[in-house]
Amino acid sequence: MKIGKIIVLIGVALLLSIIYITFTQPGEERYAVQFKEIDFLRNENNTGPINRIYAIYVQDSVWQDMASYAASKPYTKYGSTKVFFFIKDYSGQTFLSWDDDHIPENFRQDCIASYHKENNGRVRFLKYPFPR
C-alpha cells in the first residue's frame, strides 16, 4: 500500500510541475519592442498546404526579436509562413495580396524586414527586403 501512495504522490507532483511550467512560459512581454498585427492573409485551402502572410507593425528594428517573433507564428508542413515588418503603422488598411511580392509598391519603403519559412522548413530572414 505504501508503494501505491508514493506513486500517486509522484504522479501528482509531476502533474503540478507540468501545469506550472505550462502557465509560466514567457509570452510577447519577453521582447524589447511591441508588435502589432496590421494585416493577415490565409489561403482557403484546408486539404493541402496552408499559406499565411502577416504584416506586423514594429516601433524599432530589433532584428533578433523580430526573427524570434516571426518564428513563433503558426507554420504548417508543406505550407509557408511569411511575415513582413513595417516601421509605419498601417492599421485598418488591407493591403496584402497573393501577388508575387504580396505588398503594393507604395508600402514597400516602410518594410524593414521579412521572414519566410518555406514548405521544406527552410527559413530566410531579410533586412530591408525591397530596394529603397
Describe the structure.
The chain is of the alpha+beta class. The protein has one domain (29-127). Helix content is 27%, strand content 27%. The chain contains three helices and five strands, in the order αββαβαββ. The chain has helices at 2-23, 63-71, 105-108, and strands at 35-42, 51-58, 80-86, 111-117, 123-127. Strands 1-2-3-4-5 form a five-stranded mixed beta sheet, with helices on one face. The longest helix is centred in the N-terminal third of the chain and has 22 residues, at 2-23. The model has no long low-confidence stretch (mean pLDDT 87). This is DUF3139 domain-containing protein. It comes from Agaribacillus aureus.
Salient structural properties:
alpha+beta
- The proportion of strand residues reads 25-35%
Helix content: 25-40%
Query: How is the largest sheet built, in terms of strand order?
Result: 1-2-3-4-5
Note the overall shape: elongated
Mean pLDDT: 87
Q: Kindly report the oligomeric state of this protein.
A: single chain
- The SS-based structural class is alpha+beta
C-alpha termini separation: 74 Å
Number of domains: 1
The total strand number stands at 5
Produce the secondary structure layout.
Blueprint: H1 2-23, E1 35-42, E2 51-58, H2 63-71, E3 80-86, H3 105-108, E4 111-117, E5 123-127
Parallel strand pairs: 2-3
Antiparallel strand pairs: 1-2, 3-4, 4-5
